[in-house]
Write a structure and sequence with these properties.
Layout (H helix, E strand, L loop, with lengths): L5 H50 L7 E5 L3 E6 L11 E4 L4 E8 L5 E3 L11 E7 L2 E10 L5 E3 L1
Antiparallel strand pairs: 1-2, 1-5, 2-3, 4-6, 6-7, 7-8
């Protein structure tokens, strides 16, 4: 008898399918976590940009950040207008959302002061993956205007 029996072939196919499913699951988790990390890091960069532009008095204006469940917007001034052409809006990956905005004054935005860069609001902004609420990340916004990922 030459060749493989049907049982041997079935076992090999089953092993290949199991290994493939493990690999795809791992790849999926890594891709989702990278999307979360990328979005959180970009939000911190926008916060830093708003603070630096205010400290430098760019366009002789203060700058602010508005947080929404699926996006963050950097805008000129302290009053948000969705129609402003100078807004820089960042939409999160479809996999990522803000799960909680806990800023002082129960607000969803933070403005920065000239010269010092101090923030008008302090607290936390929590992000998570929509399909895995255990995968999360939090930005802490301090009174100094500095932000860090926790």
């Amino acid at each position: 008898m030459k060749g493989f029996s049907l049982l041997e072939l079935t076992v090999v196919v089953a092993i290949v399918l199991i290994l493939t499913s493990i690999s795809l699951s791992t790849f999926y988790n890594v891709a989702n976590n990278q999307a979360l990390n990328k979005d959180v890091n970009y939000v911190v960069a926008l916060i830093e940009k708003a603070r630096i532009q205010t400290v430098n008095a760019q366009n002789n204006s203060r700058y602010s950040i508005k947080f929404a469940s699926s996006s963050v917007t950097l805008f000129q001034g302290t009053t948000y207008s969705s129609n402003s052409v100078s807004n820089i809006k960042f939409d999160f990956s479809p996999k990522v959302e803000i799960s909680a905005i806990n800023l002082s004054g129960n607000t969803q935005q933070a403005s920065f002061e000239f010269i010092t860069g101090k923030s008008s609001a302090t607290g936390t902004i929590s992000f998570r993956l929509k399909q895995n609420i255990n995968a999360s990340s939090t930005i802490i916004l301090y009174k100094t205007g500095l932000a860090e990922i926790n």
